[in-house]
Structures are given as structure tokens and as C-alpha cells.
Amino acid sequence: MAFINWDDSFSVNVTEIDRQHQKLVAMINDLSDAMKQGKGKEVLGKIINALIDYTATHFKTEEKYFNQFGYPETVSHKKEHTAFVQNVSDFKDKFENEKITLSIEIMNFLSNWLRSHIKGVDKKYSQFFNEKGLK
Ligand SMILES: [Fe+2]
Hints:
Bound molecules: fe (ii) ion
Number of helices: 5
Mean pLDDT: 95
Low-confidence stretches: none
Radius of gyration: 15 Å
Helix content: over 70%
Order of helices and strands: HHHHH
Distance between the termini: 31 Å
Structural class: mainly alpha
């Protein structure tokens, strides 16, 4: 069963960004499935690294459009991205150093962050981007 389900309530009305968000949701579900199946550290580590890499790609896409169109909330939005990257890389370090194991709390943190970020700050740029012709 999927840990988090993407539905239209997640849409930011920009196709490229919706696709990236869907991929992030799928990756969180992969991680949750691997955890439930009791996969080892190596498999989990690979999925976590892929998630981190793809998150960076995704944030770059959003920030590219912020710069391109002069989005007024660029600074505060970028701060949320930076804080999340920091959190996840701290978690990854702890996981790699075997100080923590992947847990339901971590899965909840990842999925809750994604859900609230998309439905909160990301949705704020929908109208702005749409008015600039980005759909
Ligand atoms: Fe964002």
C-alpha cells in the first residue's frame, strides 16, 4: 500500500512541476515499501540517495523559474528548501553511521513535509507562474 498518494489536491497547475512532485511521492513510497519488506541498509541507502538527488534536481527547477520570473517569495521559499535539504542530509549521515534506523517517524517526516510544502508554499506560486505563461 502506498504511504502517500498523489491526487489532484497536490497539483500546482504546472505540468513539469506536478510530474516532479509525483516522482518524489513515488520515491517516498519506494522507500516505505523497502522498509516494510525489511530491506537492508544498502538498498535503503540507495533509495535515500536517489531521493536526495532528485529533491535537489526538483528544487533547482522551481528556483530556476523563481529567478526567471522574479517570483516575489523567492527568499522565503528557498529557505524552506535549504532547511529540508539540511534535515535530510543530517538524517542520511545518521543513517549511514548507524546512529538511527529508518523508521515510521522518518517516513512520516518526509511525507508530511512534502505534503505541507506542496499544499502550502508551492501552491502559492501557481497563479504567478500561470500568469507568466508557465503551465
Ligand atoms: Fe518548493
